[in-house]
Amino acid sequence: MAEGTVTRRPTAVVIGASATGLLAAAALADFADVTVVERDRLPDGPEPRRGVPQARHAHLVWSGGVKAFDELLPGLTGEIVARGGRLVHIMGEMVSRAPNEVWFRRFTSTHHRNLVCSRDLLDSVLRSRVLADERITLCQETIALGLEGDARAVTGVHIRAGSDADADADASASADTGASAGAGAEESTLRADLVVDASGRGSRAPRWLTELGAPSVTEREVNAGVAYATRLYRAPEAARHIDFPLVNVQANPAKAPGRGGIILPIEGNRWIVTLAGTRGGEPTDDPDAFVEFALSLDDPVIGELVKGLEPLGDVITTRATANRRRYYEQVRHWPDGFLVLGDAIAGYNPVYGHGLTVAAQCALAVRDTLGAAGPGHPGLARRLQRAAARPVAAAWDLAVGQDALYPGATDTRPNGVERLLARFVDRAVETGARNPRAMAALLDVMSLERPATRLFSPDMLIPMFIGPRRPHLQGPPLTDAERKAAMP
Length: 488
What we know:
Elements: E1 11-15, H1 19-28, E2 33-37, E3 60-61, H2 63-72, H3 76-82, E4 86-89, E5 94-97, E6 113-116, H4 119-131, E7 136-139, E8 142-149, E9 154-161, H5 171-177, E10 186-191, E11 194-197, H6 205-211, E12 219-222, E13 227-234, E14 246-249, E15 259-266, E16 270-277, H7 287-295, H8 301-306, E17 316-318, E18 323-326, E19 338-340, E20 346-347, H9 355-373, H10 380-403, H11 416-432, H12 436-446, H13 458-465, H14 480-485
Parallel strand pairs: 1-2, 1-11, 2-7, 5-14, 11-19
Antiparallel strand pairs: 3-6, 4-6, 8-9, 9-10, 12-18, 13-16, 13-17, 14-15, 15-16, 18-20
Helix pairs in contact: 1-4, 1-9, 2-9, 9-10, 11-12, 11-13, 12-13
């Protein structure tokens, strides 16, 4: 926050009422009065939201994110579960095939749990919890136009309030032209000791910073060319009375085009089914081709489980799946009073399911850094930005380590060290699929609970090189009861 002795309660502005923005507001509320600026009008309950088009696809929160949720907002996970969400044991309540086509055994000895529900439900519970805090104010239908300040310090954000969101679908263009958007729109400046950009993949922070005279930001993109298609189904009657497993077939980068899919049982006796394919193997929005695509995967288990079920709505597609990272933590002269979080720093291929976990861990890093340093110190924003970069980097390395192997994904092909590491990770997956101790080490990393160095621990290395080694499974480990329950 801005330099100087703090003699009043500081103020913060968070741009975006996304999950990242709400978690950031919760993290900041102990240290500042927070205003959340949101361009849309938010729904009152678990309903679709214009600003989150990706919400139709399958979402989950890894156990590292579940832990961060409950550290930031004690009891939040329990509230979501009480509303119909579910904590799914990894791998006990999952049927999952790794990218190297190895099926995981359903070990039950680990502590790891995924939080599974619709994105609408998660966002609704999170909104209700965060916005009930009297220290947090929501400004809806308000657009952030740019930053106030200079290259040394950001002191506020220019906003346009009262805008008609439909008439102002392109906020960037209207900001450039200065055009008024909608009757009654008013422009003003919100002063703040800290401005947080949580506006997601469409963040304009790089342009805003250069307009203030700050250095440009290094960016990198790794785009496997993944397209997603999702359809909602009514769960089979018998499957509604058991904890039906999450079913996941991951694409193999060694066999381009890569194709995969997931069945995610959610609240309301529904299954979210998301299919994915890289360049040359993309799914479409053709409802008649959806099950056929699922049956065409290397293992047809998803198609076999879905065929004959009652669809609930159309097929929804997206291609906004590139891994894109902005290295704000490397900017030599970072302005005081400004922070970028979540997808505005880095967005990932959604197949890895790390976005929400990283958002929660970023917010937790901000809270813990502020708790240790306290507001009002020069250079604090730089420390906050570097703290937020750590969970971002962990998820980035996991995603890019796989996606960079696809043809055309990046101009910079993996070097010798990166290829060697990728082979080691494949070996770790093969070991974890057969050994519960190795599985625990693998899940510590995949769940973003521990750094990647955990893969080099004795829990992984001893079974990897000494054994004993069980044979690999030859197919998906669904029980007879689960297969029977899945019959429509």
